[in-house]
Write a structure and sequence with these properties.
By secondary structure, the chain is an alpha/beta fold. The chain has 26 helices and 9 strands. The radius of gyration is 22 Å and the shape is globular. 46% of the residues are buried.
Length: 453
């Protein structure tokens, strides 16, 4: 059964005589004023690195926000375009010595743009298509079946070699390049609602299954449940899960994000878990900020605070637990890619390395310019394919320069983006979620994706 499209409650828009923004959560002037325009953010910003355009840097965008709040700008294609081109990677947040909360500023501005800017019809419908499909696993599974046939029949290879794809818009080409290998068995993989802890139970944790993750990376969810159970966690995958709202938050669709956040809180509250474990960096960063997202909701504000405090990336949970399950050697060189919404938005950087360090004979290699975004960034690689591809190709070259046998990261979007770039580079370096390496070590097997190369 296909879920109905979320009908978000309309927000009251009150025009301001002094601002191009409405009065519902406009970019807060006090947060804008925190920026002293020192420039420390410039070398960390992917779009500034690409174009050296001041208005496509964090401080430049903050200046545009200030102009908007003061009524000295026009909400037109040029103005909106500077914010559309931001990846929201939050590298500037890590670099800023003044503690500027750019994450809150960019999300507020994007919500304003989505409510008040009239996009071109083609752009509007392309974005709508994304949000009608991607937050809904059942719809994605319906789409995945013909995609499997497209791959299994050899039609994909024929289309790619013929140059036929070049007749399509860049956005369509980008989407096609990101489709991962699909198996029919994988589409029907179901995670048990309850996975018992092995040995003495240490924790009861809830597992977020995700949208894209549950359809195209179900094996990652299976590995996550196995690893947590092996380390003494009872793993609950509660029914009724939907999208956590991350894609909506990062794209300015605030009202839909609120509905999805409320449902996520309801589902995991009923599960009565000690922690909520997330294996997708973008989801984790949003769920940890539900307390901000739901700050105006009297029925959910306090509940969101308690919920967000329970949310942890899987690497955080594993780093907190003294390793109990035996690890078998994996004599491999792995390049670990820091997902932006893990290292910058959540400030989780050492924990994945600590967890990978428990695997005997596994050598973890650092990727040059590791803070640079790969270009995935939610839906960015679909709506802004040219800069996204340029960033991905840079990332691929940096990965290949390490001489690694395998790539590991902590986010499904990064896996799709980097795998596509490695293919363009002519190298089929296997790319896995870091928890898959831990799972393979615990089971004493070669990682499945390495066997296929």
């Amino acid at each position: 059964m296909i879920e109905p499209v979320v009908q978000a409650k309309p927000l009251q828009v009150i025009p301001s005589a002094e601002s191009i923004f409405d009065e519902h959560h406009a970019p807060p002037p006090e947060l804008i004023d925190d920026c002293v325009h020192c420039g420390f953010c410039l070398p960390t910003c992917p779009t500034y690195m690409l174009w050296h355009e001041e208005m496509d840097s964090p401080r430049g965008r903050i200046y545009l926000m200030k102009l908007g709040t003061e009524g000295q700008a026009t909400l037109n294609e040029t103005y909106a375009g500077h914010f559309d081109k931001c990846l929201g990677c939050m590298a500037c947040v890590t670099a800023c010595p003044s503690g500027v909360q750019y994450d809150k500023l960019i999300e507020a501005t994007r919500s304003q743009i989505e409510r008040n800017y009239k996009r071109a019809l083609s752009d509007k419908w392309f974005r709508r298509m994304i949000f009608v499909l991607f937050p809904y696993p059942r719809r994605l599974r319906l789409l995945a079946a013909p995609l499997w046939l497209y791959q299994a029949s050899g039609l994909r290879r024929l289309v790619q070699r013929s140059g036929l794809l070049n007749l399509f818009p860049a956005r369509v080409i980008a989407m096609e390049s990101l489709v991962p290998p699909i198996s029919l068995s994988g589409l029907h993989t179901a995670i048990s609602e309850r996975t018992l802890a092995q040995g003495k139970k240490r924790r009861r944790v809830g597992l977020l299954l995700g949208c894209v993750q549950s359809v195209f990376f179900a094996d990652v969810n299976e590995a996550t449940a196995r690893v947590l159970a092996a380390e003494g966690c009872e793993v609950i995958a509660p029914p009724g899960q939907g999208c956590c709202g991350a894609l909506m938050v990062h794209s300015g669709l605030e009202a839909s994000a609120l509905d999805m956040a409320r449902n996520t809180i309801d589902v995991f509250e009923r599960a009565e878990v000690d922690s909520v474990v997330i294996n997708a960096a973008g989801c984790g960063s949003t769920m940890k900020e539900y307390v901000w997202l739901l700050r105006d909701d009297p029925a959910y504000a306090e509940r969101a605070k308690a919920f967000s405090a329970k949310c942890k990336d899987v690497s955080e949970v594993l780093a907190e637990l003294e390793p109990r399950a035996a690890r078998h050697p994996l004599p491999l060189k792995v390049a670990y890619h820091d997902a932006c919404h893990l290292q910058h938005a959540q400030a989780v950087r050492m924990q994945p390395r600590q967890v990978l360090g428990t695997i005997p004979q596994l050598q973890v290699l650092e990727i040059p310019d590791s803070a640079l975004c790969c270009g995935s960034a939610g839906i960015y690689n679909m709506v802004e394919p040219e800069p996204a591809q340029e960033l991905a190709d840079l990332k691929a070259q940096n990965i290949l320069s390490t001489g690694a046998d395998i790539l590991a990261t902590s986010n499904p979007g990064c896996l799709l983006q980097i795998a596509s770039a490695l293919k363009r580079a002519g190298r089929q370096l296997p790319a896995v979620h870091m928890v898959e390496l831990v799972d393979a070590s615990m089971r004493g097997v070669v990682p499945a994706k390495l066997q296929r190369h």
